[in-house]
Amino acid sequence: MSTSSDNDAALPELEELGSLVAAIAAEELMPRFARAERSFKADGSIVTEADVAMQRRLTAALSERWPAYRVLGEEMDAEAQAALLEEPGAGLWCLDPLDGTSNFAAGLPFFAVSLALVRDGEPVLGLVYDPVRRECFTARRGRGARLNGVPLGERVPQLDLSRCIAAVDFKRLPAELAARLAAQPPYSSQRSFGSVALDWCWLAAGRYHVYLHGRQRLWDFAAGWLILGEAGGHSRTLAGETVFRAATGARSALAALSESLFEQWRTWLSRDSA
Q: Which of 151, 174, 192 is the endpoint of a domain?
């Protein structure tokens, strides 16, 4: 009888997976950067030929190399995504072929490929690849997180909330909370660069100190959530729930690498706006 540790030992190697993603991104994304024609999906979000080409190539490569695992991609229709989540089989790759499509189409160099392997309702592998900087963030459940092979989480920022850089996506926050943050920011400064997957990873790397997003999808956060957690970080939804859920519904997220900062941030966000 196999054990969970036996199953974990049989997981794909992150180095091989990273090389595969990097090679396909070099062929399908970078030649199209700032050149791809954009179109709009039913929900108003942007899609380009690069999203579709990257998903097609990577799905084929993953299926050939690891045929036991099926692939759920952002650019699939909702019915197909739901069917895969209901019957994931041995495991399910959760893929965002181009997280930060608006940036990519506009020529802003902040986008990534996000890929997580989900088994038994939890991510066991996570990889986020930034083809502009050639940075590969990876994590394996219970084995820590790395950036280009170097461990993350060994240097945790020990700051007061008032001295922090916050990554906040105002557009998707409840209006009252967004207004309170704009009028009374508890942090030193704020950024919003437009890639959920990289936001989680940059937080894990200590480049941001606290994070807030109102609505993100499974393919946006699955890999990044694991990477931050394996780096020792902390996260919850605004309702106080675990962020990860193997479902396509939107999830909010507040997070920090430092436990102290996370508690300060959560306390400020949860207090009565009056």
A: 151
